[in-house]
Design brief:
six-stranded mixed sheet, 40% helix, Rossmann fold, globular, single chain, 540 residues, alpha/beta
Length: 540
C-alpha cells in the first residue's frame, strides 16, 4: 500500500520496506511516512510485524535481510554506513523499549546510564552530564531526583523505570522517538501518566513519535494518525478519527470490536448458602531490614494486606482491582495457601496449614491460572505430561488410559482439538509449550487447572499478556466454563474492562487495604471512593 504524504519532505519516508529471515519475508513491501512533530501509531497484534519494522529502521534486528528505503531527512537508514547510523541512534532518533527492566543495565544506577548517553552523544563532562541527568529525571516527574538518580533499576517501581527510560531516550532531544509498547506493563493510572508525559515532552521538543502498540485506547488518546498491520502488511491507514469511526478493512473492524463483553449468568446470592472462600481480618506481612545498627538485632515488618474481608460465592466471580503494590497479588497467594497470614481464611469451611496432607486435598479445590502462560508451563514437558501431572497427584489410582481420556476431554473443554481427528489429537498431546501461540498456551494453563475439577479458580491477570482479540476469546472461554461447571473465580486484575466483563462482585484495594467493595454494577457505575473513581477515569 502506498500513501505517502503530499509534502515533499516528511521527516521519515519508508518505501517498499521488506524484512526477511533466511529468505522468508515477515514484512512485505510496506510504505508509510511520518512528518516532523507528528504522532503516528503502528497498530497490530503479536506477529503482525510492527515491532520488527520499528527496530529495523535503526538496524537493530540481528540476521534481518532488509530491502527498500527508510529516508530520514533524505538519508537512507537502511544503506548508510554503520558508523554514520551509530551517530544517529540516541541522538536524532531514540527508542523506548517495551520492558525497561530488561532494557536498563541492572549493574548501573539510573543516573549513570543517563549520564553515559550525554557524555557519548553530546560530549558533556562527567559533572555536567550528572547535573543534566538530574534535570531530565525531574522533568519526567520522578520525585526527589537527586536521590532517585542514585538508585538501581530494581529499586524503582515500574512507572519510575519507564520514566527513567524516557529521560534517557530524550536526553539528546531527538527529532524522532520510536516507542515500542511503552505502557503495556503499567497500571491503568500509570499508563495515563506516561501518555500525558510523552505528549507534553513531544509538544515541548517538537519531536515526532512513532508509537508501536496493540492498545486501541492508547491510540485514541495519543495519536494523530494510525497504521494497521496484519501479517506483515499494512491493511489500513489514516487519521485516528477516520479509522476508528469508519474502518474499511475487516481486520481493523475486528480489532476495534475486540472489547471484552459481559456474558455472565447473573447468579443471585443465595441466603444461607456457604461461601466457597471466605476471609475475615486477613493480614499478610513480610519481614524487612531495618537501617543502621538496629538491623543487627531485629527486623521490621511490611504489611502487604491489612484487614481484608471478602466472600467468593458459588458460581460467581469476585474481581479484585488495584494498581501494582495494592496487595491484590499477595492476597491471591494467601488464598492459594502459599503465604503465611493472620486472620481467618477458609475454603468450604476449612483452613489452610493444618498439615501437608490436608493442604494437598485443599489444593484440588483451589487452582490457579497465572499471568504469563509461557513462564508458568514447563518447557520440558509435553501437553499430556503438563495436564496429567495434577491427576498423578490427586487421583493416583487412574490408569494411563483413563488419565489420557481425561486429558483429551479437558482439551476439548477449552476449545483445543475440536476440529482434529484422533491422530492429530495424539500429535497435539506430544507437543511442547513453545509450539503454541500465546492464546493456546493460556488455554492449556486453564485446562491444567480444570482437570482436577476444582471449585474455585484464582485468575491472576489471566489476559494481560495477550493481544486484544485473543483476550476476548479467553474471557469468553472463562465465562462459558463458569456456566458449564458452576465455577467460582477470584479474579486479580488492574484492567477495568476485564472487571466489567467478568465480575459479579468487586473489591478495590489500595496500599494493602480494601477501600471499596460491592456488586460490580454498583461499584463501577456509582463508585464511592476517590481512588475507585480515579481508576475508572484513567481507564477512559
Amino acid at each position: 500500500m502506498s500513501n505517502l504524504n503530499s509534502q515533499s519532505a516528511p521527516l521519515l519516508a519508508v518505501k517498499g520496506l521488506r524484512i526477511s529471515f533466511a529468505g522468508q519475508a515477515v514484512v512485505h513491501d510496506i510504505d508509510f511516512y511520518i512528518n516532523a512533530g507528528e504522532k503516528l501509531a503502528l497498530v497490530g497484534e503479536s506477529g503482525s510485524g510492527k515491532t520488527v519494522t520499528a527496530l529495523s529502521l535503526l538496524r537493530l534486528v540481528q540476521n534481518a535481510e532488509l530491502h527498500g528505503q527508510a529516508l530520514f531527512q533524505g538519508q537512507d537508514l537502511l544503506s548508510m554506513p554503520e558508523r554514520a547510523l551509530r551517530g544517529l541512534r540516541g541522538q536524532a532518533i531514540s527508542m523506548i523499549f517495551q520492558e525497561p527492566m530488561t532494557a536498563l543495565n541492572p549493574l548501573l544506577t539510573i543516573g549513570a546510564q543517563i549520564a553515559e548517553v550525554l557524555e557519548l552523544k553530546q560530549g558533556l563532562s562527567r559533572p555536567q552530564a550528572a547535573q543534566k541527568a538530574i534535570e531530565l529525571i525531574a522533568e519526567t516527574g520522578i520525585y526527589e531526583p537527586e536521590r532517585r538518580i542514585k538508585a538501581y533499576p530494581h529499586q524503582l517501581s515500574g512507572g519510575q523505570r519507564q520514566r527513567a527510560m524516557i529521560a534517557m531516550a530524550l536526553a539528546c532531544q531527538p527529532q524522532l522517538l520510536l516507542a515500542d509498547e511503552p505502557t503495556t506493563a503499567l497500571d491503568v493510572t500509570l499508563r495515563g501518566q506516561i501518555l500525558d508525559l510523552l505528549a507534553r515532552l513531544q509538544k515541548k521538543n517538537g519531536m515526532a513519535v512513532l508509537m508501536i502498540t496493540h492498545d486501541l485506547n492508547l491510540v485514541r488518546r495519543f495519536a494523530d494518525r494510525v497504521i494497521v498491520m496484519e501479517n506483515g502488511r499494512i491493511v489500513e491507514q489514516g487519521t485516528v478519527s477516520d479509522v476508528f469511526e469508519c474502518p474499511q478493512h475487516s481486520y481493523t473492524r475486528r480489532l476495534i470490536n475486540s472489547k471484552p463483553t459481559r456474558d455472565l449468568t447473573e447468579t443471585a446470592l443465595m441466603t444461607g448458602e456457604p461461601a466457597v472462600m471466605q476471609a475475615r481480618a486477613l493480614r499478610v506481612s513480610y519481614p524487612t531490614s531495618l537501617p543502621g545498627f538496629k538491623g543487627w538485632f531485629s527486623q521490621g515488618t511490611f504489611v502487604a494486606v491489612q484487614g481484608a474481608d471478602f466472600d467468593v460465592q458459588p458460581g460467581r466471580t469476585l474481581g479484585i482491582m488495584g494498581e501494582s503494590g495494592s496487595g491484590k497479588s499477595t492476597l491471591a497467594l494467601a488464598a492459594l495457601g502459599l503465604l503465611p497470614f493472620k486472620g481467618m481464611l477458609q475454603v468450604m469451611g476449612q483452613a489452610w496449614g493444618l498439615s501437608a496432607t490436608h493442604n494437598q486435598a485443599m489444593r484440588r479445590r483451589v487452582q490457579v491460572v497465572f499471568q504469563d502462560p509461557f513462564s508458568s508451563l514447563s518447557p520440558r514437558l509435553t501437553v499430556e505430561e503438563i495436564l496429567g501431572e495434577g491427576l498423578v497427584v490427586h487421583e493416583p489410582g487412574l490408569s494411563l488410559f483413563e488419565r489420557r481420556q481425561r486429558v483429551e476431554k479437558v482439551l476439548l473443554d477449552v476449545g483445543m482439538g475440536l476440529d482434529m481427528n484422533q491422530t492429530q489429537r495424539d500429535n497435539l498431546l506430544q507437543r511442547y509449550p513453545h509450539e503454541f501461540s500465546g492464546g493456546q498456551r493460556q488455554r492449556l494453563a486453564i485446562a491444567r487447572a480444570l482437570i482436577v475439577n476444582p471449585l474455585i479458580l484464582v485468575l491472576d491477570e489471566p489476559t494481560s499478556a495477550l493481544d486484544v482479540t485473543i483476550q476476548k476469546q479467553v474471557l469468553q472461554l472463562l465465562q462459558r466454563l463458569q456456566r458449564e461447571h458452576s465455577l467460582s473465580y477470584l479474579l486479580i486484575t488492574h484492567d477495568v474492562e476485564v472487571i466489567q466483563a467478568m465480575a459479579h462482585d468487586v473489591m478495590v484495594m489500595k496500599d494493602g487495604r480494601v477501600v471499596e467493595s460491592g456488586s460490580a454494577v454498583g461499584v463501577l457505575e456509582n463508585p464511592k471512593h476517590n481512588y475507585t473513581r480515579a481508576l475508572l477515569t484513567a481507564a477512559g
